[in-house]
Write a structure and sequence with these properties.
This protein is α/β, with parallel strands linked by helices. About 25% of the residues lie in helices and about 25% in strands.
Length: about 260
């Protein structure tokens, strides 16, 4: 089991770990899948804490367990062992009744799909998560605000087909934060983008943490995508490995190496 050792550290660029209690907590979480005659351990005794205003990057290769970690944290899938707590709620219990309850109201989830109607305007698409549980007017207000925060307000009356890949990413992020969540979960948010567009998206995510106090938990497969986060951890074969404490002025990040241990 690996638990982050960042408590009591301070990042001069915004996050103060010593002043923040955990918003999300995974304690000894294990998740298994059965594929035919084989059992796959996607998460192996994983422990993790994310505080309000903290930007955490989970780095790992394909099939390392990153997406499963986010889905378990969101209550989309239930853990087989361990405890997942978010904003005081048991997320394993939440997952068992998710069909009735939907996504936790204080969570933002980056969806990778466009509108179900080609004619739908972007502002209406972004407003969907709010409009389903509230008034259309409130949905429009929050959607407009979210588009502005993601630098995409000029796209409000465009349609999905008119957008570039980078613009679609900004719009999908706007939809994820339209409910003004306490925690944003983003699985590979810069996928398919060029260097400049990737940097802009990561800067926006960092600003959500530093300026808005939103916690961000991001899973990424590329080293450069980690560099804007407060905290870096590595997931390998389902095991979460804490990095050494980040230093805001460091030019090199120590990537943790998995130890060879008898199992």
């Amino acid at each position: 089991m690996t638990r982050s050792s960042r408590r009591g550290s301070r990042d001069p660029r915004g996050f103060d770990a010593s002043a923040a209690a955990p918003l999300l907590s995974l304690d000894g979480v294990t998740k298994r899948y059965v594929r035919g005659r084989h059992e796959i351990v996607a998460l192996d005794d994983v422990s993790l804490e994310v505080a309000p205003g903290e930007f955490v990057a989970i780095f790992g290769s394909h099939a390392s367990g990153k997406t499963t970690l986010l889905r378990v944290a969101a209550g989309i899938e239930a853990a087989d062992e361990g405890r997942v707590s978010f904003a005081g709620d048991d997320m394993t219990e939440w997952a068992t009744s998710r069909r009735r309850r939907g996504l936790h109201p204080r969570l933002g989830w980056l969806r990778r799909s466009g509108p179900f109607l080609a004619s739908m305007t972007i502002v209406d698409y972004v407003a969907l998560p709010v409009a389903r549980g509230g008034s259309p007017a409130e949905g429009q207000r929050r959607a407009t605000r979210a588009l502005g925060r993601m630098g995409a307000d000029a796209l409000a009356h465009a349609t999905w087909e008119e957008l570039s890949d980078a613009e679609r990413t900004h719009v999908m992020l706007a939809q994820a934060i339209a409910r003004e969540p306490a925690l944003l979960l983003a699985d590979d948010p810069t996928r398919g983008l060029g260097v400049g567009d990737r940097e802009r998206v990561l800067t926006l995510l960092r600003a959500l943490a530093d300026k808005d106090g939103m916690a961000v938990l991001m899973a990424v497969p590329e080293v450069p995508d980690m560099l804007r986060s407060h905290t870096v951890m590595t997931l390998s074969d389902g095991e979460l490995i804490a990095s050494s404490d980040r230093n805001a002025t460091a030019d090199v990040i120590d990537l943790p190496m998995k130890r060879n241990t008898a199992r």
